[in-house]
Design brief:
Blueprint (H helix, E strand, L loop, with lengths): L7 H5 L4 H24 L1 H8 L5 H14 L4 H15 L1 H21 L3 H4 L2 H31 L4 H29 L2 H8 L1 H19 L5 H4 L7 H8 L1 H31 L4 H29 L1 H25 L3 H19 L2 H8 L2 H21 L1 H12 L4 H20 L5
Helix pairs in contact: 2-6, 2-8, 2-9, 2-11, 2-14, 3-4, 4-20, 5-6, 5-8, 5-19, 6-8, 6-11, 8-9, 8-19, 9-15, 9-18, 13-19, 14-15, 14-17, 14-18, 14-19, 14-21, 15-16, 15-17, 16-17, 16-21
Length: about 425
Amino acid sequence: MSSISHSAPTSAVKPNLHKTLFATCIGNALEWFDIAVYGFFASYIAHAFFPTSDPSVSLLLTFGSFGVSFLIRPLGAIVLGNYADRHGRKKALLLSINLMMLGGAIITFMPGYASIGLAAPVLILLARLIQGFSAGGEFGSSTAFLVEHFPERKAFIASWQFATQGASTLMASAFGLGLTQILSESQIQEWGWRIPFAFGLLIGPLGIYIRRHVHEPASFAQQQPEAAPLKRLFGRQKELMLLAIGLMVISTAVNYMLNYVPTYATKTLHLPGSAAFSATLLAGVILTVVTPLMGLWAEKVGRVPLMWGSLILLLVTIYPAFTLVVNHTTPLTLMLLVGWMALLKSVYFSTVPSVMADLFPIGTRASGMAISYNIAVTVFGGFAPLICTLLISATGTSLAPSYYLMAVALLSGIALVRSKQRLS
């Protein structure tokens, strides 16, 4: 039986735009802040928890734990998405943010390999699995919560889901840049890398408090919950999930490529850490500011033209952009590459949440979006740093990441063609 109250008072409550945005986006921000920090400080985490005689092997192990944790995201999407469709978006949002904080606490306070041996990498993996499970249900529940509260502003309101990812990248980059300026390399290695993770723990309780004081969307509260959303989803809506996955893959690939930039810049291009974090700081600013502006623009010109424009531009420019950086490696060219990727991502990114929401009916929306999103993120995003590291090693060229981005852009283009009739 559902625990949703279908009383008139619940459905009659007029949602507050700012409170609703904050309640939903803070969990998304916390999720992506921890992900970005883990990616940005991968070389330090590798030294602390995955020490080997070969630094490249340590880095691969670190990115492997980064990617393996994403394997559990589809399970989290199934469990928490189903929970949100049957028992309410609010309860699912509260559960996911509590789990995020638990995983963050383990990473923040756990001793390194030198102190506890093999328990260190095992516990790091456990923490990432907990965070991956909780993040698995966050996107579907929070996006459904937003578009169901404000269906008349769905393109704009849902774009804030990904604008908060930009804000998280911005904060993580600021920490990275600040720490490289304030602390010595040895201080960052010894304890400084833990500071941003500790900061993430501080904002969690505020998110929990706000989420406890929001109401279910009227359109969800007034209807009879789907008795078996997963059965309906996998029985009758498999094509919808495939379309949603396809639309998402380029967006998530670019996002994780931006997280990979500090490692790519320092290990492959041999630029200083400050240059890498400055570039990702620029990306965070662009993603935070431009994404909601593109959401507003999509309300006027439509979502499909923006999606096509960004896909085509990425396909024809990403290889020349990487070529420029590899042949003329400077902090400026790195910032131009990262800024261009962030701009194209903002245009495409702003439309994706509302489009995915439109693909699914209310009864299976949280499950459908969560599962589709996390399959895309797991396969094409979470392993992107590892794939790019392996591609560079296998091909011997620093241009390998551009090949990967072009391939996934083609996949999203195919999905956009197939789903065009459903979009407006």
